[in-house]
Amino acid sequence: MSPAIERQTLPHPRGATDIVIGVDAIGAAAESFAAWAAGRTLFVLSPAPVRRLHGPSLAPLIAAAERRVEIEVPDGEAAKTVGECHRLWEAMLERGGKRDSRLLTFGGGTTGDVGGFVAGCFLRGISYVQVPTTLLAQVDAAIGGKTGVDLEGGKNTVGLFHHPAMVISDTRLLATLPPAELRSGLVEVVKMAFLLDPPLLERVEATLPALLAADARALVPVVAGACAAKCRVVAADPEEGDRRRLLNFGHTLGHALEAALGYRHLRHGEAVAYGLLFALRLARARGLEAAAAARLRALLARFDLPPLPALEPRRLYDLMRRDKKAREAGMVWVLPATLGRGVMVGDVRRREVLAALDAFLADPFGE
Ligand SMILES: NC(=O)c1ccc[n+]([C@@H]2O[C@H](COP(=O)([O-])OP(=O)(O)OC[C@H]3O[C@@H](n4cnc5c(N)ncnc54)[C@H](O)[C@@H]3O)[C@@H](O)[C@H]2O)c1
Ligand SMILES: [Zn+2]
After folding, report:
1. Is 223 domain-assigned?
2. pLDDT digits 0-9 by tens, 147-164
3. Is the confidence at residue 124, as pLDDT, over 70?
4. Is the minimum distance from the CB of 132 to ligand 1 under 6 angstroms?
5. SS3 66
6. Are 286 and 162 members of one domain?
7. Averaged over 209-218, what is the pLDDT?
8. How remote is the CA of residue 346 from the centroid of ligand 1, in Å?
9. Which range marks the domain in which residue 332 is found?
10. Position 325 pLDDT exceeds 50
11. Mean of the pLDDT values across residues 326-350?
12. What CATH number does the domain containing 154 carry?
């Protein structure tokens, strides 16, 4: 049986992030959290729905702070604006925030992104802890120190690297997540597992129904495996050089689909799932074995994705070219060379992408 609590450490240029994952990770982390928060003012940032559902779960952590200031943030992407940061900084200053104050984010990836950015800039940077409450935030957004907010012209366009002191991922919190949110987070797990950790892929395949039912125990090794995979990549490449770009597998088309659909209709992870299916086509043309591609398609077929609406290949292509992850040098595709190994490919011709898009849009799960 897998242990109920997993501990990991992510070293980064300014220290290390302690990551505690498990059924009752909050209880397991309470002592070290207390040492971090004792005698300080603790700002607790969370959106109303999360506080309503899970507010009392935080009690074992926040009791240790000398003074607690709870501040509500807007729910979802609406929290990620410069205006919202301004409001938070003013509120923190007014409520006595100092250089040695602490900040805790309690919510999904949006809360962590805005809270991390607010902590990173306030008085030139205060220490913060993330308690992520979505699967996507536990396996992806909370790990790696990227924080930031959106501008009208694009998502995550203003931000900085500011690693949390701790990430406390309690899998019991995921029980209230809508199934579509769980599925969306699991796609990111599958993305990492396919390129970085084949045994993790096997575990997802074997336990998918329990994972989709938010079984807190079944989720522990999966959250831990995905975190460990992301930590390995980030530790090797803390400030986003090439290796970290492996995490972009499925995201080139995924981002374009989200943009083409106006960020409605598909959740991020659902768009990435389609992006993975598309990347498989380009990878097959470069030697990925048929069996490996079929395996990923079969797993994603069990995710019950919402169908893709009609889309224009040329528009998707233009959106991919404009994506901020495409650099001056042009589009770089992250493709699996084999199961467990990804490569960056820069020489995919426009004609090939458009032909593959035609075939993909006609039959997303086809070979
Ligand atoms: N910093 C990074 O490296 C990184 C990586 C990936 C994604 N992100 C960012 O993460 C964000 C997406 O994160 P997300 O998917 O967690 O979205 P989110 O924060 O908007 O949460 C999704 C929804 O789930 C609800 N929710 C949260 N916890 C819940 C719970 N336990 N039970 C029931 N409902 C709950 C929230 O209220 C919200 O409505 C995006 O802004 C994206 O840019 C950042
Ligand atoms: Zn993603």
Report:
1. no
2. 999 999 888 999 999 999
3. yes
4. no
5. coil
6. no
7. 97
8. 31
9. 249-367
10. yes
11. 88
12. 3.40.50.1970
Task: Tell me which residue of 103, 109, 106, 180 sits closest to 141, measured CA to CA.
Answer: 109
Better-scored residue on pLDDT, 244 or 42? 42
Q: How many domains does the chain have?
A: 2
Closest ligand 1 atom to the C-alpha of 111? 19
Q: What's the full length of the chain, in residues?
A: 367
Domain boundary among 123, 158, 176: 176
Rounded to the nearest whole angstrom, what is the distance from the C-alpha of residue 8 to the centroid of ligand 1? 22
Annotated catalytic residue, options 40, 162, 248, 258: 248
Ligand sitting nearest the alpha carbon of 137: 1
**pLDDT band of 326, cuts 50, 70, 90:** low
Q: Are 68 and 96 in contact (CB under 8 A)?
A: no
Q: How confident is the model at residue 263 (pLDDT cuts 50, 70, 90)?
A: confident
Q: Which two tokens stand for residue 304?
A: 């019950």
Instruction: Look up 240 and say whether it is catalytic.
Output: yes
Nearest CA to ligand 1 atom 9: 109
Evaluate whether residue 195 is within a structural domain.
no
Mean pLDDT for the stretch of residues 223-235: 96
Sequence-ordered alpha helix ranges (H) in the chain: 25-37, 48-54, 59-62, 82-94, 109-121, 135-136, 179-196, 198-212, 216-236, 251-260, 268-284, 290-301, 313-322, 350-362
In a domain, 187, yes or no: no
Q: Which of 176, 200, 220 is the last residue of a domain?
A: 176
pLDDT at 95: 98
- The number of CA neighbours under 13 Å toward the Cβ of 232 is 11
